[in-house]
Specification:
about 110 residues; mainly alpha; about 0% strand; disordered N terminus
Length: about 110
């Protein structure tokens, strides 16, 4: 990885996105993290080259249901966990967008 790529682990939410990407690359489409990444694919696809996104992933509305059902197995806090996880991935997407804008600004 180049220096630019090595900063991803400093972004909030990378612990979820990084694991989700690794799971997807290994064919594990069923982990919580993989589902979160698939749900965020419209935002993440802008950074496809940076993240090395798997090309076979298509976002789907059923991913929301799949994530919620997985979280229900952990007890009554599924709704709160669902919202917190989605928010954490959104923070990653926002931070990645910001990092990209800063990088573009430096290259001009």
């Amino acid at each position: 990885m180049t220096d630019h790529h090595s900063h991803l682990d400093q972004l909030p939410g990378w612990e979820l996105v990084g694991k989700g990407l690794e799971d997807l690359r290994q064919g594990n489409l069923d982990s919580i993290e993989a589902i979160l990444v698939m749900m965020a694919m419209p935002r993440l696809s802008v950074h496809e080259q940076l993240l090395h996104l798997p090309s076979f992933i298509q976002p789907s509305h059923s991913l929301n249901i799949a994530l919620y059902q997985k979280l229900e197995k952990f007890g009554n806090s599924a709704h709160a966990r669902y919202n917190a996880l989605r928010q954490r991935v959104l923070k990653f997407c926002n931070a990645l967008d910001q990092m990209h804008k800063q990088t573009l600004g430096k290259s001009n």
